[in-house]
What does this fold into?
Amino acid sequence: QVQLVESGGGLVQPGGSLRLSCAASGSVSSINAMAWYRQSPGKQRELVAALSSEDNTNYADSVKGRFTISRDNAKNTVYLQMNSLKPEDTGVYYCNSGTYSGGIYNYGDFWGLGTQVTVSS
It folds into this structure.
């Protein structure tokens, strides 16, 4: 079992920045890859960024060049640095523990409860 707790969300103006954190606990040695998803109002949950244990990354086209996923292994924490935020980035951001194979991230069973990001003037 892996427990994931997100933090760092909030209200930010367009063009602003936020850094989300996802702290993992439990069977962290079993983690192969981590990812951030978001669910915007009226839309399905979508993959935003993924990071493998070998530092391979995937990003949604809509966030490339603006968002960066990273981790601190000593703290068992994954981050999502979000710059140049847009209103369409608004949503609940979830952390997920999954697998990474053939350049593709496959979501796993463990999810956090999410953190709300609202981009609005």
Q: What stands out?
A: The two ends are 40 Å apart (CA to CA). Residues 18 and 83 are 7 Å apart (CA to CA).
